[in-house]
Amino acid sequence: MSLRRTRLFLVLLSLLCLTGCWDRVEINDTAFILTTAVDVEQDGKIRYSVMMPLPGNMGGASGGGGGTAGTKSYYIDSEVGTTFREAQARLQRRMSRRMFFAHRRTLLIGEDFAKQGIRNVFDTTPRSPESRMTIYMVVTRGKAYELLQATPQFERFPSEAIRELVKARNVIHINMKQVALALSSPGSDAVTVYMGVKESEKTSKNAKKSKEIEFLGYAQFRNDKMTGVFENAEASGLAWLKNMPVQSTATVKIDDRYTITLSIFDSKSQIRAHTVSGKLRFDIRTEAKAKVTESLGMYDLSQTGKVQKVEEAMNRYIEQAMRKAIRKMIGNDTDSAQFGSYLWREHPGLWEKEYASRWPAGMKDADFRIEVKSVLTETGLIYENVTKAEPAR
């Protein structure tokens, strides 16, 4: 009998080691935040917007938002506050579920807010254990809230369209951690992806235009304030200067007669900083590969000499794109390509003595030597137009 009591006592004693689910949070009590948007109001207060999925309406819904639910597959709401957390707390007051931020993948910042400075964002986000520094930062043309109101046709949620565009092969992948490092490192300024909303063309008279999300380039910062935008060739030039192997599309002219479109990929850049006769110089060497995606004008790419002409035209395009990006930096007094960091690492004494206190003003007098070597690796399945004849005139 005593043995039985002893066993029962040990079993009951072992129950003390079981903590149970005293701090459990049910999924049905959680609102998963897909993305957040930050704007500034006219009175200087912060507008904080969130997007959340509606699980009960996700079985075939086409999406929607704007602060109402109905049959929409997601819900958008926003609130104003003096700080981010104050606005977030006001949002929480009218939500029956607790907002959960661990699944957030993008943070949208309105253009007006970015121009006033983004440094405060790097205080509120890292303080929360649910927030991740690997989320993508995106500056929006106009209000960030408006980007949440987009109606992309290929994704269920606008946040998914934003995330897929940010991760595309033709875009520099910039997360919050990288922006923070650029803001805190000597001789560098930050850049972020820049996006906007574009209305699609009507396919018929009664068709409703969709609001698609569009990648526009990169927002340019001086310290933590937005000063400009790298667009088109400037954006590609910035990617090459930052040694980011993005895929770019370039259209070049050959002999002022032939027009060829190329897909440039697998690029590599090296930058060396030094002084020559007391003048600062940066040597930039870039290598790239490309393939022909279209050729207008019956240009025969089976001939080695003509292939070399295309490579030379591509070299000029890449160099011009990088010089456009450099001129944009000098014009807006920024160092988005982190030339100062190269100088600081290679010549720390020279940096501290002559340039640290006045950078990036030192870029105005610097000499930028650019050398580009590109190789045409593919012409597609054909060398020239399959008709092999000039069109009738």
From TrEMBL:
Give the record's keywords alphabetically.
Germination, Lipoprotein, Membrane, Palmitate, Signal
Which GO biological process entries does UniProt record here?
spore germination
Secretion signal: which residues?
A: 1-23
Residue ranges annotated for the Spore germination GerAC-like C-terminal domain, each copy included: 217-380
What Gene Ontology cellular component terms go with this record? membrane
Q: Where in the cell is it found?
A: Membrane
Q: Which residues form the Spore germination protein N-terminal domain?
A: 23-195
Q: How does it sit in the membrane?
A: Lipid-anchor
Q: Pfam families per the record? A: Spore_GerAC, Spore_GerAC_N
The family database entries (NCBIfam families) matched by this protein are listed as: spore_ger_x_C
Family per similarity comment: Belongs to the GerABKC lipoprotein family.
Alphabetized PANTHER family for the sequence: SPORE GERMINATION PROTEIN B3 (PTHR35789)
| Record-given protein name | Spore germination protein KC
